[in-house]
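Running low. Invent one:
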Amino acid sequence: MATESTLRFGAQTDEVTSLLRIVNMVRSGDAATRPAIGRVTGLGRGVVTQRVDQAIQIGFIEDAEFGPSSGGRAPRTLRFRADRGRIIVCALGALHIHVGVAMLEGDIIDEKHRAWDIARGPADTLDAALEMIDELLAATPDVPVWGVSVGIPGPVDFATGRPVAPPIMPGWNGFDIRRRFEERYDAPVWVDNDVNLLALTERSRRREEHLDLIYCKVGSGIGAGLLSQGHIHRGANGAAGDIGHVRVAGSTSLCRCGKTGCLEAVAGGWALVRDAEAAIADGAGGKLASGAEPITPESIARAAESGDALAISLIQKCARVIGESIAALVNMFNPERIVIGGAVVGAGEVFLAEVRQRVYELSLPLATRDLSIVQSINDRREPLRGGAEMVREQLFDVTFPRWFADGRPSRERVHPEELVAG
């Protein structure tokens, strides 16, 4: 049986490895009884009993109801104790704060949402987010927080949790977001780009373990989350998928990042609004020009779907340019599915048809042979679900050996590099 010392210091003996595997098998539903664990792992009955008993003693799993009998005595099923901890999810957008709480199985059990301009800076923004989270946590005050996810609309150094020169987030460059949440909730924290969390939502929804997918979000800005064989591809420093600031040939539009000709400055949500207002000032008519509602990326998308000529021309121009950028990713990355989300999805096939045409025109035939390009369901909870999925992955697939013996994660075990840096 694994000793306390080997577990405590994360020594990867065969005993520890098999113990961790059994807990994760029960958690994921790959095996729910002791006989099933033996069949999947090849471990003997006595060894399985020892490992399961230890996992029960530490508090990760428990005996549940009896399962169906295959002729003999019915086996007792095992259940992961998902109620032992909570996951906090905070999704910061350009113009909103969205927070939620999940139990360890990942389902969002409560949430709050409010309008907010992220340009107000990190101090005010995080104070508002923490206040909203505290209100949610008050409903279950006796359940400890096991992990926190924070999604932001900008580039993130995933290793440190700090934004790096985010174009629409003045004052956030290098800000230690992780520390604010760690100090408040005494739990490990991960900060990531919001589009990566949306890609993880798709993985969770489709339950495909080895999914190759691009999630492209076209909102105020433009970004892509890349799933390679089911894992987020962040690149060396977390910048993978930041297509919003790829140069568009021939464009002279000034971007919010200070450069000229970025994809976002041509086809982002704020660029759509800019071009719509300029066209109306030049005398364009139609639904957008009527003044019935403010001109936003969402209202432009809705107007395009309802047949407004100006809105359709703007959406199609946006889709063509974005399709060209996605085609470059398709040739390099060869995904099986592209999901388009964000404000423009309200335009439906007006947008998607143009993207598909450009992608198929500009990509290699082999890369598009089995490719599907679909619209996101555009559920407001998507980034919350993705955030919970990211925390579960980091806790149980990445850092589990570091904290397993303690019975619950701690920031010291999960992020030991912070102790060295401090």
Summary: Residues 1-11 have pLDDT under 50 and may be disordered.
